[in-house]
Design brief:
69% helix; 2 domains; single chain; 7 helices; Arc Repressor Mutant, subunit A; mainly alpha
Length: 174
């Protein structure tokens, strides 16, 4: 492996670990210290606007509805989520964020916005565009790799589309 590849591999791992570490610490030391990162991401997947079904939310997170049920039970007890049966089809369970859940989700989003702003600020518009282009390419590649290892059709709903784009590009190049 070339020296550049080793350095890139090392830095990618460190970036991933540091983002998770700082995200976790910002949650633990903030107003929503009773939430884990996984619970915060669950709130984000539910969304602030409309009630979602358990199935929709589990699919967005790439987990089973059984796994989601355990997390939702905790979030309901903590006062971040409300769970109701659908009035038309009692088999369907709908979940939505409480006022506290919406606030937690917004604060979590702010963490990511501040991180992105800090990364982009020192660069010119052209450098920012170049960096964003490289990050998009990395995202496309990793999304395609992740979809190969997941038992379902995709890790996130866009993974299937990304993989199809890559296949088309490979067919055009080959």
């Amino acid at each position: 492996m070339r020296e550049e590849e080793l350095e890139l591999a090392d830095r990618l791992v460190r970036i991933f670990e540091n983002v998770l570490f700082t995200e976790e610490k910002s949650i633990q030391q903030g107003y929503f210290s009773d939430l884990s990162i996984a619970e915060m991401h669950t709130l984000d997947a539910i969304g602030s606007y409309e009630a979602r079904t358990m199935s929709e939310t589990a699919a967005a997170l790439g987990i089973t509805t059984g796994t989601l049920t355990v997390s939702i039970d905790r979030l309901v007890k903590k006062g971040y989520v409300i769970r109701n049966r659908d009035e038309k089809d009692r088999r369907v369970v709908r979940i939505r964020l409480t006022r506290e859940g919406k606030l937690a989700s917004r604060m979590h989003g702010k963490y990511h916005k501040v991180l992105a702003r800090h990364i982009l600020e020192p660069y010119t518009k052209e450098e920012q565009d170049l960096l964003l282009g490289m990050v998009r390419e990395l995202d496309v590649y990793l999304e395609a790799q992740a979809s190969r290892y997941n038992g379902s059709e995709s890790v996130r709903k866009t993974a299937k589309e990304v993989a199809a784009k890559i296949r088309r590009r490979e067919n055009d190049d080959g």
